[in-house]
Design a protein that fits this description.
Six copies of one chain form a homohexamer. In chain A, helix 11 runs antiparallel to helix 12. Chain A is globular and about 45 Å long. Chain A is an alpha/beta fold and 338 residues long. Chain A is 38% helix and 25% strand. Chain A has a domain of 232 residues: Ribokinase (UDP-N-acetylmuramoyl-L-alanine:D-glutamate ligase, 3-Layer(aba) Sandwich). Chains A and B meet through strand 7 and strand 11 of A and strand 13, helix 12 and helix 13 of B. Strand 3 of chain C pairs antiparallel with strand 3 of chain F. Chains A, B, C, D, E, F: One of its GO terms (molecular function) is kinase activity. Chains A, B, C, D, E, F: It comes from Pseudoxanthomonas helianthi. Chains A, B, C, D, E, F: This is Sugar kinase.
Chain lengths: 338, 338, 338, 338, 338, 338
Amino acid sequence: MATITCFGELLLRLTAPGRERLLQTLALDVHVGGAEANVAVSLSRFGHQASMVGVVPDNPLGAAARAELSRHGVDVSRVRSGDGRMGLYFLEQGAILRPSEVTYDRAGSAFAIADPAGYDWGTLLAGAQWLHLSGVTPALGERTAQAAIAAATMARQMGVRVSFDGNFRPKLWRQWRGDAPAILRELMGRAQIVFADYRDITVVLGREFAQTDPFARVDAAAHAAFEAFPQLEVMACTHRTPHSVDHHTLSAQLCRRDGASVHAGSLDVAGIVDRIGGGDAFAAGLLHGLIENMADSDALTFALAAAVCKHSLPGDFNLVSAAEVRSIAEANGFDVRR
Amino acid sequence: MATITCFGELLLRLTAPGRERLLQTLALDVHVGGAEANVAVSLSRFGHQASMVGVVPDNPLGAAARAELSRHGVDVSRVRSGDGRMGLYFLEQGAILRPSEVTYDRAGSAFAIADPAGYDWGTLLAGAQWLHLSGVTPALGERTAQAAIAAATMARQMGVRVSFDGNFRPKLWRQWRGDAPAILRELMGRAQIVFADYRDITVVLGREFAQTDPFARVDAAAHAAFEAFPQLEVMACTHRTPHSVDHHTLSAQLCRRDGASVHAGSLDVAGIVDRIGGGDAFAAGLLHGLIENMADSDALTFALAAAVCKHSLPGDFNLVSAAEVRSIAEANGFDVRR
Amino acid sequence: MATITCFGELLLRLTAPGRERLLQTLALDVHVGGAEANVAVSLSRFGHQASMVGVVPDNPLGAAARAELSRHGVDVSRVRSGDGRMGLYFLEQGAILRPSEVTYDRAGSAFAIADPAGYDWGTLLAGAQWLHLSGVTPALGERTAQAAIAAATMARQMGVRVSFDGNFRPKLWRQWRGDAPAILRELMGRAQIVFADYRDITVVLGREFAQTDPFARVDAAAHAAFEAFPQLEVMACTHRTPHSVDHHTLSAQLCRRDGASVHAGSLDVAGIVDRIGGGDAFAAGLLHGLIENMADSDALTFALAAAVCKHSLPGDFNLVSAAEVRSIAEANGFDVRR
Amino acid sequence: MATITCFGELLLRLTAPGRERLLQTLALDVHVGGAEANVAVSLSRFGHQASMVGVVPDNPLGAAARAELSRHGVDVSRVRSGDGRMGLYFLEQGAILRPSEVTYDRAGSAFAIADPAGYDWGTLLAGAQWLHLSGVTPALGERTAQAAIAAATMARQMGVRVSFDGNFRPKLWRQWRGDAPAILRELMGRAQIVFADYRDITVVLGREFAQTDPFARVDAAAHAAFEAFPQLEVMACTHRTPHSVDHHTLSAQLCRRDGASVHAGSLDVAGIVDRIGGGDAFAAGLLHGLIENMADSDALTFALAAAVCKHSLPGDFNLVSAAEVRSIAEANGFDVRR
Amino acid sequence: MATITCFGELLLRLTAPGRERLLQTLALDVHVGGAEANVAVSLSRFGHQASMVGVVPDNPLGAAARAELSRHGVDVSRVRSGDGRMGLYFLEQGAILRPSEVTYDRAGSAFAIADPAGYDWGTLLAGAQWLHLSGVTPALGERTAQAAIAAATMARQMGVRVSFDGNFRPKLWRQWRGDAPAILRELMGRAQIVFADYRDITVVLGREFAQTDPFARVDAAAHAAFEAFPQLEVMACTHRTPHSVDHHTLSAQLCRRDGASVHAGSLDVAGIVDRIGGGDAFAAGLLHGLIENMADSDALTFALAAAVCKHSLPGDFNLVSAAEVRSIAEANGFDVRR
Amino acid sequence: MATITCFGELLLRLTAPGRERLLQTLALDVHVGGAEANVAVSLSRFGHQASMVGVVPDNPLGAAARAELSRHGVDVSRVRSGDGRMGLYFLEQGAILRPSEVTYDRAGSAFAIADPAGYDWGTLLAGAQWLHLSGVTPALGERTAQAAIAAATMARQMGVRVSFDGNFRPKLWRQWRGDAPAILRELMGRAQIVFADYRDITVVLGREFAQTDPFARVDAAAHAAFEAFPQLEVMACTHRTPHSVDHHTLSAQLCRRDGASVHAGSLDVAGIVDRIGGGDAFAAGLLHGLIENMADSDALTFALAAAVCKHSLPGDFNLVSAAEVRSIAEANGFDVRR
């Protein structure tokens, strides 16, 4: 069991019921989410001491988001209140050949406009063994980019290990014309674990990877990443092949500096219930595996099972225990458990 | 963009929630529908000026049906109020091997009993470029059959192009012992576009088509239809292969007088959300394609994508834009759009 | 049409909505169930006179369970009230690779603690042609085991035919250290029809069956059962192959004393709506087929169709008529019925 | 405990959720109702053997209506299936100063069009001690009027006591220009108990009652009724004073041939949950009281409490036991019962 | 019947279900609202040609808001799309002594940030007889204040009559330190009808009104307003006395330049369903009365009845016809209408 | 701000929706509750560090109950898992004259059967300033009675102040024939604050209090209690007058050893949303007031406002802040807060 601090934006997700178009009927289901919060909840469910750092508005929406993390065992005592609004996103769940659509409504959020000087990272990271960040945070603007870099920098100084999930979102970067490669290099350059595929590395290093075999292509990208970032130990990602909106195939890959490249899967994910948060579930699963000193292939199998499991659950959070993930990883049968 | 008038019955659909049997629990979801109204809503969503002609009772049910069409941009100023009740149908959604079941409750509806003389077609069609009708309307009784023929006749006189969707419903015809072949010939004999497969042509012309290849069979039926109806330009239909209640395969075919026969698909439609309205979505899609002067194969691909899309949406209406259908037709990826 | 008495516990099932984890949101759907009650409802829906014998608490929960059986035509005049609580179970519906989970909460139920002397079987079975029991009842404790044996014994004396569904639940037996083999032998030794596969027979007779072909293995087990139980006429079971939580393949087998072994299926059950009660639907289907003097293969095909149909319906009950099951058995098409 | 046969139409009620306008959102709650069915359910809940006679269509709607009565213990074996549709009504619940509105949709119902010769009253009333009818049934048309008179006539011949609830609905009578006074006289002329106020008697006897005191006015009307109908023993009614849509005051009155006039109430009914079925609950309550040989004032107090209780329950049915009504009649406290 | 243009912001309201705290359970009901949109919907329901002018984002939320107005007959062809987000507000419905709470989330909305030069008022007001504005619009910021003044100015030039509802919101004005008195004077100085009480006039004219009788105080304020604004013809307001969160008493007052002061009410509003939009319903009611040339006291009675009626309906809109309001105004009885 | 430990059973409440009878429709709303847990949540919401001690089963129900307390900020690290089931209660919400009904289903709960030796009170109370208990816990059985006495005894030893809420439940005591007076004396004899009215003191001391004035009667009971229990400082209670199920009047009283008797209220509580938990809200409110060193009358006014507020909120918990309660206590207006 480890102590992990996650830094990122808490969001409210407002989802059209069933497979309806957004506001086809005038009702919305609400879930709490956010890439890093999803990781925190997963890790808490796996038995770790997960703690969230962030900013929410001082209103019922911010309070509800904090409360929901508390409900799942995440320490929210370091989520402070600030000016600005609650970050929202609206989700419409697709089906068959009609893709799901996200409508973001996070501009001007308390998290986005918070002064980076407001985070006292020495205090916030005290006691943590890991800091988890994602590429969504710096993509939100100058201020969050500065805060993310400050967090990673202080983590390195304090000997806190850093996990970074690429999560490249070009739309967000374009809005404020942020220098994504430079900023992401600052973050990847401080991480021991990076969740990224070849596209992320292309963005960060400005290099193309043209291998036709998808695993070889990630190997090449990982090789480049290990060269560029000497502190980096592990690069991992999933491979997703969507056959339709409801039916994907997933596999996973973990690369080590020594050239080791472990694969897991592929698993058939048919009848997807809710795809959001699959990548975060994978990240949390792998962190858990590595923290627990599983062999790389066991950790990767666990992480992939966690990711697949998320697709079976409504909402952003992967509300399962480590034992449940293990049981899925071991394919312990698909009939009712009584 | 065109101006299209749709003539037909507005219905309220009352659906058992989820996959329950009808009234298994005592709740019903409500949708507005009706073959021609579904086409009107699709066309409005595609950017056309769609207008509905029909009759509803002067009560909250009739008002709700009109309001729902307005919500989707259809002009309902020519839907008048009349004596009689609101046409209803109750729907139970099947699953796996248990088929969906419709329980009609449309006898005595305001639309069915309306005096055909009450429609002043010269005024109702003023400004329209297209009139869309379906075989459901004449199947309802003597009065609606007369009204449909009068509408098509006036459309021809005014140079309004006519689109006719066969939609053959033997149960309805039997109830009043209507002479389906004679009446449908009146309507098909005035249409430029007919949505029909070989079974409809067999009914109308009293000829069998015995080809084993389904596309060849439709070609033969189309040939017969073009011979019988000199004004007819296009005959189109879908081919549906159901593997289970939730999983069909769809393809489509468009025939021209010159013998050209274009095919689209086949597309796998697995995990069907709601199959009702698929044919109407196809008709609207093809009308859009032809109005927009797409090549026949592009128009057919668009129409098939529209039909498939409908299967992913709860309710009778295909609540998508032309851009969304194009994106599905081009298979632009099945992962979440952010 | 026959008169059938079912003896067993009525349960309330409390289910998390959709595919949520239990109490992920604080709402529960309620269904009434119980292995023998499920059979009673099916048989009533098939046109038989089904009657329930059991005990429920004298409170709104017991009343609701009785009322729900009445709603489906089952005679509940012999379900009496007694001390103790209502048996409950909580259900979480899995998806993809995450299995469904049952949390039982039936300890101390009115049924479990009822004095076996409280059942006057001569009166309770008067007029019955069949008595249906399952292995769940004796597994609940000494008292219910005694009651089940007394019921079967009196049935034999009165010439009432006995149907017994194995339903072996090791967890329940372990709780009170009941001698499952001895007690189940008492019950199987009085039944004309037993629903059991090789595992049940292994438990009862203490013999392993090592054939690799699953049908041959059941044949061997049936052979042993016919040897051990001279009154036994039929042994039947389903074969279930789960590909994922939502996708199983089902076939079925019926063995006669003369060595006849009839098979049905296999049928693909994809997009499972609710798997609970599938075995009870099979038992009711086969009882119906045999009561109606169908040929064995027709009866088995009917029973398998009934079992598959249950997977398409929310709740424990298979709310379909015999005509609907026949139509599924005959694969009469998967498109909407209008 | 008595055996009571109720003859009338089963209806499905479709209600807008909460206090919404009808179809403001596209969902409807469903309840089963009908004036005589409401009485049957109440009496069954009070411990009597209540039986329904009527006709429903042979479709899922008719089946659901029968099932719902069964659920509450009413014998529906004499509700037969027939041609025609299910009678429906749509309800919008008002509030404050906005009245509730009913939209009837019962034209052409299986009950309304059923051949009166189809009822074999000798068989249908065999074993009954009471027949309960209401003025809604003859108001539906010639056929139902004939059936109601035939039922009352046969009841008199067989010595079955007749209870008749006036329920005068001018709108229904006007639709077919039925001779309400003549027909209602036939029915009142065969009843031992009539639920009616002065307005009903005015309609039936063509006499005005001009007393300003409402109780005196009913006394005068009762005097006239007892003169006109020599078999009549009891006339009873409620007095309702609506202060707003949600807040009424209720009292009740029972008149005997000997001039005895008993009063109950008045009770304040504030925060009305659902007013529909209040009169039927009163009728059932009084029938129960008289059958149980309560003193008139006790019976009337019981009936008024039953009527008030109905206002606290969603749906048409008064789902309470006699003990619960007694407790309300005795005002046993308004705090939570634990 | 008149043609009325309403200028203001369209909002989505997200409401906690029942009387729950916001996000107590994670679901939200959605309604469309906005002070001026509420007036537009009311007027459309009363039979007028109401048209909305405003700006919404080009996303599913903006589209849903437009569609909902269309559904109620409001012309939305002049609601254009623009940059920025959808204005939202979250509502928690109080009860007993716990007040309802609004959490605004409208900063940065497409309406708030729209360039005032983007409105071509000559075109937008073509054909209108009335322009309706409220004090919410200028309170949103410099840009909307300019737009509102430009609209009123052009209306005066074109001879379009102006209706202005004060709706003073100090919180909004403080946020951008707008000069409320000066800006509101510009608007009141161009209106023929002003909805305002003495507090609004105090803000605008900087004068206190100290009369203890509330009607006299409004008379005094009206006198001052008529002096300050020579074009002003009518000032009207409601008087609200809240006894608890669910129980208010409402009366109303209309003042004319000649000193005439008409009163209506008071009406008891107990069991409030939804208080939001009551003031807008009053404004729409009075506009309707004056447009229809009712006597002042009739118009005021109608307006007050409309306001009270709104309290009985979920959502912001007063979904009633003029006939329904008249019936409430005439207190036509509170029992169910059948 | 104080540190308060609450010891008691966590319960799941399963409530019929709206004002339905239990299982009238087959759905249940779920809330977490329990007298002491309700106090803990209130205190946490008021800003205190509340901690729960108890036992729940190791299943999803127990986990959900813990999670829900966490969500509201209560420390659940001392709620351990144990054998047995989750305590449940089913609630039906009455209306008008029909009382709400609780159906308990808590027999055999993990809390009830937990070994009292399993609580290490020295550790469990470490750091606490207050221990809060209620009379429900000892009423559950020998084991919980022992545990409660052990907790109070250790609290006294450690200088932790004890708050005890009488909550006398005769039904529970009768079930195990517990010596209520003796056991309750042990607990009251260790408390500084007791929530009790004259009935509780009668039970405990075996003395009647016959004063007709309700406040005088409580004064007399308090006098007796102060004599019997020398450590007792404060006795407080509410006075509730129910006018109907939905409409109560509440006042409150606080007595000191020196004979001081402070009163608050009375407040009219009309349109009750959910009465459960009102007493617990009062207890939490008074504890808060006294901890914060309010004057007795301010504390009592605060506590009464908290109790009234609870009646406006669905569920057992009083989900309000101290500021919100203060605002209610000060009657800061009942109109919408924007």
